[in-house]
Design brief:
This protein is an alpha/beta fold and about 350 residues long. It has twelve helices and twelve strands. The chain is globular and about 55 Å long. It binds pyridoxal-5'-phosphate. Pyridoxal-5'-phosphate binds next to α3.
């Protein structure tokens, strides 16, 4: 056997593999997974039926163009079907966007800390990540992000609400930022948690996209719609960008099961709103509970809360796990905790209270 191994691209060296939130170990004390911002509810009405029906023909390739889903989304958002592009989760679409815009020598700007896939997909493309620290209040520093633009900048991610802090940027500041971005730089408004927003000052990215050809909106069926396991997300973007997404898509990446489930989920609006409403109520309960215990919790508009625990991060996550919930630690920085089933949230609040008393 030869001693040499295949030559891999140098860019891959040092790129971490994506770390998923840890599952709740079966048989152990951990009963609930609050580490991946998933939806605790089962599929929406009609979804199981449509998936089961689609399963009968999975010997066939799916509809490559996702025609039914694209038409449904086009109608729902009042945008041309040619402006809708689907992909294998919104992370898949985000990767396609980077591939379509940035290569070696180019720069991609995003806030940090933010969604951990951004540095990975940027470096896979061979582009240079430019990370702009969040403000001390854990919010995007849009002025600093605009200042970071150079003639090598090709794409800017604005994660709104931001993962993992849950914080948002509001209409006036986002519009001011967009006014500063050159028209040949793509701004991706990553709105994975859009449905959980209750602050009326947070703009809907789709409204901003209408007037701005360099704005693209990223949405997903993984969070509010509860289809994380089926892998389907989409972008709304003007024609050149949407067309580039069709070129960079993995052919047949979105399964027919995912397409049918997404369409059925869009049609189950009433149930969706009820569930999202309950999670938002739970979010309020958890935030107020934590603040009542003395914690500083940034205002969150997503389905998770952020505790900046610094050096206590790992011990806090271990205490939660011991109590029965697995959360998401970012060692040295903080812990992100998904709003889950009411009982899971109770367990988490109790664990946080116990930890606080020991501090
Ligand atoms: C901000 C943000 N964007 C995108 C995604 C990707 O979600 P999906 O690929 O499941 O659509 C996530 C998932 O955690 C996220 O937090």
């Amino acid at each position: 056997m030869s001693e040499t191994s295949p030559k891999l691209r140098a860019e891959l060296e040092g790129i971490p593999t994506y770390k998923p939130g840890r599952p709740a170990a079966s048989g152990g004390p951990v009963a609930y997974k609050l580490s991946s911002n998933e939806n605790p509810y089962p599929p929406l009405p009609g979804v199981m039926e449509s998936v089961t029906a689609a399963a009968a023909s999975f010997n066939r390739y799916p509809d490559l163009a996702c025609t039914g889903l694209v038409n449904e989304l086009s109608e729902r958002f009042g945008v041309p079907a040619a402006h809708v592009a689907t992909g294998t989760g919104s992370v898949g679409v985000a990767q396609q966007l980077v591939q379509a815009t940035a290569g070696p020598g180019d720069e991609v700007i995003y806030a940090w800390r933010s969604f951990e896939a951004y540095p990975i997909i940027t470096r896979i493309s061979g582009a240079q990540p430019v990370q702009v620290p969040l403000t001390p209040g854990d919010v995007h520093d849009l002025d600093a992000m605009a200042d970071a633009i150079t003639d090598r900048t090709r794409l800017i991610f604005v994660c709104n609400p931001n993962n993992p802090t849950g914080t948002v940027v509001k209409r006036a500041e986002l519009e001011r930022f967009l006014d500063r971005v050159p028209g040949d730089v793509l701004v991706v408004l990553d709105e994975a948690y859009r449905e959980f927003i209750r602050d009326p000052e947070v703009p809907d990215g789709v409204e901003l996209y209408r007037k701005r050809p360099n704005v693209c909106v990223l949405r997903t069926f993984s969070k509010a719609y509860g289809l994380a396991g089926l892998r389907v997300g989409f972008a709304i973007a003007h024609e050149p960008v949407a067309e580039a997404l069709r070129k960079t898509a993995v052919p047949f990446g979105v399964s027919q099961l995912a397409q049918e489930a997404a369409v059925a989920s869009l049609r189950a609006e009433d149930a969706l709103l009820g569930r999202v409403g309950s999670l938002v109520c739970e979010r309020l309960r958890v935030v107020e509970g934590l603040r009542g215990q003395g914690w500083t919790v940034p205002e969150t508009q997503a389905n998770f809360v952020w505790l900046r625990l610094g050096e206590h991060t790992v011990a806090f996550a271990a205490a939660c796990e011991q109590a029965g919930v697995v959360v998401r630690p970012f060692p040295g920085e903080g812990v992100r905790v998904t709003i889950g089933e009411n009982e899971a949230n109770d367990i988490f609040l109790k664990a946080a209270e116990g930890f606080r008393k020991e501090l």
